[in-house]
Structure formats: C-alpha cells, structure tokens
Amino acid sequence: MALIFVIGVVLLTGCASAPPPPAKPLDACAIFQERPSWYRAAKRAEQRWGTPIGIQLAIIQAESSFRHDARPPGRVSSAFGYPQAIDGTWEWYREQTGHRRAKRTNFSHAVDFVGWYTDVTERTLGIPKNDGYRQYLAYHEGHRGFQRGTYRQKAWLMRVARRVDRQAQTYAMQLRGCRR
Global pTM? Predict the structure, then answer.
C-alpha cells in the first residue's frame, strides 16, 4: 500500500512540474515576479547573445503564449515548446551551441535559443536584434523564407510581426520600471 502511495505522489509531482503560463503574460514585471528564474534565464541569454529581453519575451509570447508544451494548431509540424522551434532548427541550435541536452519545454533553453537565432539572423541577414518586426518575420519564415520575401504574401503574419514589435517595446518599457 505504501508503494502505491509513493508511486501516486511521484506521478502527481511529475504532472505538476510544468508550470502553467504566467497569470499576466503581457506584463514583464508580473511574469518575472511570478517566475524569478525566468528573469535570470532571459538576462543570461541577453548577456550571451545581445538580444533584448523584451524581444525574447515577445517572440515566445507570440509563438506559444508561454505554454511549455505548445504545438501549432490545426496543422502537422514539428514545431514544439516555448519557442515553437522545428526539429531541424532545434538540432542546428544544439549542434552550434554544444547544448546537446537542450529541451524546447525548458524556458531557459528556449530564451537561449531565441537569443541564438536572433544573433544568427543579425549576422546573416543584417537585421538588428532590437528590430522586433523583421526579427519575428525571419524567425517565423526562416532565413531563406525571409530572403525570398515569403511573408509579403501573408498579411496576417505581417500583422502578427507588428504586434510582436509593439509587445517587445512594451516589455522593454515595463522592465525599465520593474522593482527587482
């Protein structure tokens, strides 16, 4: 009987280990007050890659609404986790950074991925890391898709990219006023 109880506790603990999305996902201060480890992870990614925390948060918010196990609705894709990175791009990140055990369901790994990807985007396409609009278009369409201009045929995507840019600016403004 004790063994069944222990197994039950382990199973419940395993299910409870993944946090729900933050209660106030459009408020950077509230996010980091609720999840201090997320701030430390985003700050590390900013220091490593130079990608502003506001850009990191805005991309993840647009991609997964801060859901660790998000998948794209209504279509078959390997996109998964906080960053909605597809398998091939995630593998490329793991190879390039040496972070072989990185998981898309880990927020710290996800913000590091976003930092790395925006760094590659800046180096290959010349898009500054603080340009939320074009960084998001390149993130969503991939570097080759961005170069080909595939986003120009997707008015909905350009609207989302404008929203990402505005949200990144809002997060940045909020972060300047946070008490930590």
Answer: 0.89
Domain hosting 113: range is 25-177
Instruction: For the chain, give the number of residues.
Output: 180
State how many domains the chain has.
1
Question: How far is the C-alpha of 147 from the C-alpha of 68, rounded, in Å?
Answer: 30
d(C-alpha 67, C-alpha 51), whole Å: 21
If 0-12 CB within 10 Å is exposed, 13-18 middle and 19+ buried, where does residue 143 land?
middle
Considering just the CA atoms, what is the radius of gyration of the chain in Å? 17
The answer to whether residue 11 is domain-embedded is: no
The one-letter amino acid at 64: S
Please give the Cα distance from 35 to 115 (Å, whole number): 19
What are the pLDDT digits (tens) for 91-146? 999 999 999 999 999 999 999 999 999 999 999 999 999 999 999 999 999 999 99
